[in-house]
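Regression test attached.
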Amino acid sequence: MKEISHLLGYRKEIKVVDATMRDGGLVNDFRFEDEFVKSLYMTNIRAGVDYMELGYKSSKEMFDPKKFGKWKFCNDEDIVKVIGDKNPAIKLAVMADVGRTNYKQDIRERKNSPLDCIRVATYINTIPAAIDMIEDAKKKGYEVTCNIMAISNAREGDIKVALDMLCQSPADVIYIVDSFGALFPEQVQRIADTYLEVCTKHGKQVGIHAHNNLQLAFANSIEAIGDGVNWVDATYYGMGRGAGNCSMENLLSFLRNPKFNLYPVIQFVENYMVPLRESGTVWGYDLQYLMTGYLNQHPRTAIAFTKEKRNDYIEFYTEIVAQD
Amino acid sequence: MKEISHLLGYRKEIKVVDATMRDGGLVNDFRFEDEFVKSLYMTNIRAGVDYMELGYKSSKEMFDPKKFGKWKFCNDEDIVKVIGDKNPAIKLAVMADVGRTNYKQDIRERKNSPLDCIRVATYINTIPAAIDMIEDAKKKGYEVTCNIMAISNAREGDIKVALDMLCQSPADVIYIVDSFGALFPEQVQRIADTYLEVCTKHGKQVGIHAHNNLQLAFANSIEAIGDGVNWVDATYYGMGRGAGNCSMENLLSFLRNPKFNLYPVIQFVENYMVPLRESGTVWGYDLQYLMTGYLNQHPRTAIAFTKEKRNDYIEFYTEIVAQD
């Protein structure tokens, strides 16, 4: 049983990462207004959030910049233009996907960039490519996380091998990413234990990025915190792909470190997130995400179902069970 | 750490209680169409649900039957008219509130009633009155549960005394009821342990009724199941007061006993619950419920906020923090 002191006290090591623009960007093709971004940045500082993830460093050879908002590419110049001078109260991060980033070219030396942290996203079968990116970012001076996606689909033996490889790399943090939103808290606990056993030995931190397909994004995040995971992703109003993520308001109401502040988060939700949703941008839990989560499938079919404004859940269930 | 076998296997002792009409009735003043009720009943049988709670046995002296749907009163004649002949595949239950029920008069002998189970709802300071109702229902031949409401507000010492008293009564099941939706899974675990220690000695079962104010209704329910709680309440599409309850579709997708069936639940949600919501009946998680849950307050202010269609979350937060 976890210590009750974990609930009433706090661990100062816990870092909160705002992933609204990165995971939420998958919902609106990264088309956030400059004023939204600036206000989110100021809100994060007031709320005590440690890292703000602005989007992806995507390859402009693979993706047409005309078809997406600028936060899919996160040019350093665009960041500086919107955010202004760096504030030491918060660190800026971007995600770089294995196989979809010209990292050698598009990621500059940290001293010439507004960015502080590169988050390398990989599936479990592309760890060597991830390590090349991790080493590149580390050499350039960045803090580096490695986010192993779709962890609910990975075998335990493979996870252990991946962790052994990554613990030889210069990555600072290794993430549990439940991309399919398929994990129950008991499974999160087991995976966290596996991660922590290896990572603690090598002086690396462990992170959690949860999805809400089973209405468990917040529950799985606090389960992981109770297990010793120190880096936690959250998004305002839970905005994120499909069923969305652990909501920032949930997370900050749970954390007891007085450096965190719920009030500005509620203000931002009222002033920006509610209008964003009312303007027709759709995310969040619904039955179609429960179904793909329950079947441990990628949510792409459920996202298409949502986009087409279907509500024939039974027909959808029949379709995806047949795919299994 | 809980055994992984709990997740892949199942305990045949687990009983699922559909509380849609009772807790959901608090949202629409118990105005469910006969066809809805009949279809829900047939769905529950196909889904393998063990108990269906139809509503309250409320005092007609205290509440005007003209102002509510019939399921606030659950006259035996009304039940028989809508449900038809009893089917041994499912048991029927009603809730009887301490201080709001003419139980001696309104609850008949079980052999003359379509009902099988009386659920006595009490606060922790009215246990003697609850025991009088439990004894009355038991004498009349019913299965009896005692549901201790607002447990997040009860002191641990009081809970132990209440359990000692109830374990001397003929109640079959004693419920953890998180009326304020304020508990985290770690707290559920502690309360469940306290309940189970006393109840197991006396051959009584423990139940859980969760609310979704912190987006934890499902998480807290499966936490309790993992701890040894065998009676679990759920509602279709999570319909229930304020932020609603643990959803039936979540719960049945989690339980591994092949007697449970998710498919008819999805059918019912598509055919009845989605239209009910689209017709303007409002329930489910939103920021105002997070705030009352987080402050461990009764959700009545958040329900009023919802009814008035307000979205000035910051003003609301200021109001309820001032009340604390």
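Expected vs. actual: identical. The beta strands of chain B are 15-18, 51-56, 91-97, 117-122, 143-148, 173-177, 205-209, 231-234.
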